[in-house]
Amino acid sequence: MTVTEIMAQLEKLGTDSTRRILMNHGARDPVFGVKIADLKVLQKQNKIKKDYQLALDLYDTGNYDAQYLAGLIADESRMTKTDLRRWLSKANCITHCGTVVAAVTAESRYGIELAREWIAARQEAKAQTGWTTLSNLVSIKDDAELDLTELKRLLKQVTQTIHEQPNMVRYAMNGFVISTGCYISSLTDAALRAAEKIGTVAVDMGQTACKVPAAVDYIHKVQQRGTIGKKRKTARC
User: Fold this and answer.
1) Peptide bond into 166 cis (omega under 30)
2) According to a count of CB atoms within 10 Å of the terminal CB, is the N or C end of the chain lower?
3) Is 218 helix (H, G, I), strand (E, B) or coil?
4) Per-position pLDDT tens, the chain of length 237
5) Which DSSP category does 25 fall into?
6) Is the pTM of the predicted complex or chain greater than 0.90?
């Protein structure tokens, strides 16, 4: 399918109610208001598999819905550092930075390199994306592929700096503590200690019902479920 054909379908699938919800979560015009479930149905019905160029072209429209779909079909094996940095800079909103961009980056060959680069950035969107990319990496990579010493150091960095960070960086750092504790069994105790030191993380979630998960409680629930260390198949959802 062409970008023009897909955009026409996206426009038909959009609803005012979903558009309002997405905008409350940070989406900016242009946005049609397509539910994620409907994006996946569109992808399946049109048999759109991983398509590097189509993903780039959809993302370049700047449309919120098209960018999300681009993330679903992106061929991570072909994404370059230039592509990923450009996606971060051209994201429709900060929400896409912490979802679409972070997920595709984590699955690419440049995940850890760009995560390190971005968490050191002063810009809120970049730093948020870096920490969320790290969260995704620990959720999908075997422990043997991860630098556990570095992750322990980053947990310490979070405890020392989280409350000084911009709004969504605090949210992403909290998510990193949770992911590390849930997906790397040898670091669960370290993550719990970090979470206890951090305490309550205050984040302004805007006009949404979203809440900041309490890291200690979240990790304990996963422990009780008996799924600590169970990895995900993909960072995308």
Assistant:
1) no
2) C
3) helix
4) 899 999 999 999 999 999 999 999 999 999 999 999 999 999 999 999 999 999 999 999 999 999 999 999 999 999 999 999 999 999 999 999 999 999 999 999 999 999 999 999 999 999 999 999 999 999 999 999 999 999 999 999 999 999 999 999 999 999 999 999 999 999 999 999 999 999 999 999 998 999 999 999 999 999 999 999 999 999 999
5) T
6) yes
End-to-end CA distance of the chain: 22
CA distance 89 to 101: 10
Assign 50 to helix, strand or coil: coil
Cα gap 51→76, rounded to integer Å: 10
Tokens of 4: 């023009």
Tokens 């304990």 belong to 220
| Angle between helix 81-89 and 111-119 (nearest 10) | 40
Closest CA to 59 of 115, 10, 3: 3
Residues 6+ apart with CB under 8 A from 98: 128, 129, 132, 168, 172
CA–centroid distance for 196 within its chain: 24
Cα 143 to Cα 74: distance, rounded to the nearest angstrom: 25
Residue in the structure block whose two tokens are 């006009």: 207
